[in-house]
Amino acid sequence: QVQLVESGGGLVQAGSSLRLSCVASGGIFSSYNMGWFRRAPGQEREFVAAVSWRSSMYYADSVKGRFTISRDNDKNTIYLEMNSLKPGDTAVYYCASTSLLWLSPTSYSQTRSYAYWGQGTQVTVSS
């Protein structure tokens, strides 16, 4: 069983930066594909970014150039560096993982590809 714990959310002003962290326990972290998703009030969960076990990175168009995903296998942790935050980035951010080694590029953005989810961390961006 894999457990994921997110941290780093908060209330910031537009244009600010935040770094989210997700620590994983259980399983072999270095072999997991990992992702960040978010859910804004009244909306469905949407893909933000993903990093493969080989450190390939994938981003939603809405965050390209502003957000950076990374992983540290020594710390069993992935990060989401968020810059130039906008009010539209306000959401609960979730970390997700899957032990499936081989995913198509489009599969990284699908919630059904991931078996394990964290509880989420709130990010609120004020205008």
Note the topology.
Elements: E1 3-7, E2 10-13, E3 18-25, E4 33-39, E5 46-51, E6 57-59, E7 67-72, E8 77-82, E9 91-98, E10 116-117, E11 121-126
Parallel strand pairs: 2-11
Antiparallel strand pairs: 1-3, 3-8, 4-5, 4-9, 5-6, 7-8, 9-10, 9-11
How is this structure best described in words?
- With 127 residues, the chain is mostly beta strands.
- Helix content is 0%, strand content 48%.
- It has no helices and eleven strands.
What keyword list fits this structure?
single chain, 127 residues, mainly beta, four-stranded antiparallel β-sheet, 0% helix, globular
What's the helix count? 0
Order of helices and strands: EEEEEEEEEEE
What percentage of amino acids are in beta strands? over 45%
**Helical residues, percent:** under 10%
Structural class by sheet pairing and helices? mainly beta
Overall average residue pLDDT: 96
- Bulk shape: globular
Counting DSSP E segments of at least 2 residues, the number of strands comes to: 11
Q: Regions with pLDDT < 50 over 5+ consecutive residues?
A: none
The end-to-end distance, rounded to whole angstroms, is 40 Å
Return Rg in Å: 13 Å
The biggest sheet amounts to: 7 strands, mixed
